[in-house]
Amino acid sequence: MTLALRKLRENILPILLFSVFLIAGLSIYRDYGVSWDEPLQRDIGVANLRFILGHEDPLVSMADRFYGPFFELFLLGAELKFFPPASHQDIYFLRHLLTFLTFFVGTVFFYILSKRIFKNAITALLCTAALILSPRIFDNAFYNTKDIPLLVFFIISFTFFMVYVDTRKFVYLIFLAVSSAITTTIRLAGLLIPFLTVLTLIVGFMRSPEGWKKKMRAGLPKLALFLLLFAFFSVLFWPILWKNPIGNFILALNEFSHFRWNLPVLFMGTSYSATELPWFYSIVWILISTPIFYSVLFFTGAIKWIAGIHFTVRGFFENQALKLLAIAAWFFVPLLLVIFLKSVLYDSWRHLFFIYPAFLLLAFWGFEKTLAQLSAKFGRFNVASLGLILILGATFVSTAVFMIQAHPYEQLYFNRLAGGNLADLKSRYELDYWGLSYRQGLEYISRTDPSPVIDYISETTPGGYTFILPEADEKRLNWLGIEADDQARYLIINYRWKKSYPSEYREVYSVELDGAKILSVFKLR
C-alpha cells in the first residue's frame, strides 16, 4: 500500500465528517433570517474601514467604537472587493456563507487540537462531531459574527498554544502571538491566551530547578518578543487604538467591564434586569441547552482531571499536565470571572460560547479515560464500554434529528433538564431573541399582499430588517417602527418580551415549533 493510500485510509472518517458538514452548510446558509446585531455589526466594519481610509467620523463618535472590528472588516472586504453584491439580500447571504466557512475552518482546527490532546484520532473525531452537533452553536455559526468568530479564534490560538507546548518551536509562538491578537481584537476575553502563554513560558524556565536561572536568561528574549508581537498585532488589527493605543485600550477595558444593556431578561420564569441576574444564569443556560450526555461527560472529565492533578513539581511541569490545566483554565476562568464580576449577560450564554470547545475537550477526555478504565478492569471488549458508546451514538442521532426538524431554528434547542416542551418553556426562557423568525413573517406578507406599498410594525427592531428579501419585496415593505401606528396594515411579533396579544387582533400567519408560537403576523386593517 502506497503512503498516499495509507494516509487516505487513516483520514477517511475525518474527510467524510467534514465533507458532510461542508455540503450541509453550503446547502442551507441561505435559510436564516437577519439577526438583531448583524446590521449593527456591519456598521462597525464600515466605520472602521472609513477610519482606515482617513475619515475619523463616524468611528470616533459611535457608541460601539471599541467593538473589535477584525472579522467585520474581513466580511466587508469580501463584500466590497471579492464578491460585489447586487442587493442587500446578496450582502447578508454572503455574510452568512463566510461566517459558516469560518466556523468550518474552526472545526478543522478543533480536530487538530483534539488529536493533540487525546493522541487518538477516533476520540478527536467524536469530540469534533459533538461540536458540530451542538444545535445552538451550529445555528449561530451562520449569522453570529461576534461570538462564533471568537470561538473559532480561541480554537485556533489554543491549537498553536498546544503545538508550542509540545515542540517549543519559536515559529509556533509567532503564530500564537498573531492569532491571540486577533482573538483579543474580537473580544477582550482573548487576553486569557497571552496570559496562559506567559505562564507556560515561565513554567518552562522552571522545569529543571537546578538550571532555571540559565533557562530564564535564555528564554526572556523569547517572552519579550512574544509580548511585543502580541501588542503590535493587537494595535494593527484594532484601528481605534492607532492614535492612542494605551489610552483607548484602557477605555475599551472600562467599556466592557461596565457594559451598557439594561433591558429585561427572562430567566426561569422571572424577568430580571441584565445587571441583576442570578449568579448561576450562565451555568443553568449551559446545562439546559447542551445535550445532556455531553454535560455528563464533562462532569466526569472535570472530576477525573481534579482527582488526577499532580501535586509534585515534576508532575506539574509535564506537557500533558500543562495542556489539561490550560484547557481547564479556558473553561473555568471566564465562567468564574463572569460570576464574580457580575458581568452583564443576556441572550442565553452566547457571550460564553468561546469556552464551549474547552467544555467538550474536558468531556471527551473524561470519555476516553472512562473507556480506558473499563477496558483495564473488564477487558478491551466489555458491555459497559459498549453501553457508553451506544449512549453517545444515540445522543448524536437524536440531536441531529432535532436539528433537521427544527431548521432553521436550531438555536431553540432545550434538553429535558429545562422541563417540558417549547410551549411550556416560552413563559420561562427567551426563545427567538435574535429575531430570525421575522424573515418568514415578512416573506408571508410579501407573498400574499400584492400592494405596491405595505405599511407594517413589529414588536422588536429585527422586524424591520427587510434586507434578506428579494429587492422588489424589500422596496414594497415599509416598516413604521415598533410603536403602534394607525397607518400600519400588519403587526409582526416574535414574542420576545410580550407573550400574548389582545384576542381582537386577527392572526393570519404563525410559525410554530414544538407547540410554541415563535412568530405571529396580525392583520390590523
List the helices and strands and how they pair.
Elements: H1 3-10, H2 12-28, H3 38-52, H4 70-82, H5 88-118, H6 121-132, H7 135-140, H8 147-167, H9 170-186, H10 192-205, H11 212-236, H12 245-257, E1 264-267, E2 270-273, H13 281-288, H14 292-307, H15 313-316, H16 319-340, H17 356-378, H18 383-406, H19 422-425, H20 438-448, E3 454-458, H21 471-476, E4 477-479, E5 490-493, E6 506-513, E7 516-523
Helix pairs in contact: 2-5, 3-4, 5-6, 5-8, 5-17, 6-17, 8-9, 9-11, 10-11, 10-16, 14-17, 16-17
Main location: membrane
GO molecular function: pentosyltransferase activity
Membrane topology: Multi-pass membrane protein
Summarize the structure.
The protein has 525 residues and is an alpha/beta fold. It has helices at 3-10, 12-28, 38-52, 70-82, 88-118, 121-132, 135-140, 147-167, 170-186, 192-205, 212-236, 245-257, 281-288, 292-307, 313-316, 319-340, 356-378, 383-406, 422-425, 438-448, 471-476; strands at residues 264-267, 270-273, 454-458, 477-479, 490-493, 506-513, 516-523. α6 (121-132) crosses α17 (356-378), α9 (170-186) packs across α11 and α14 packs across α17 (356-378).
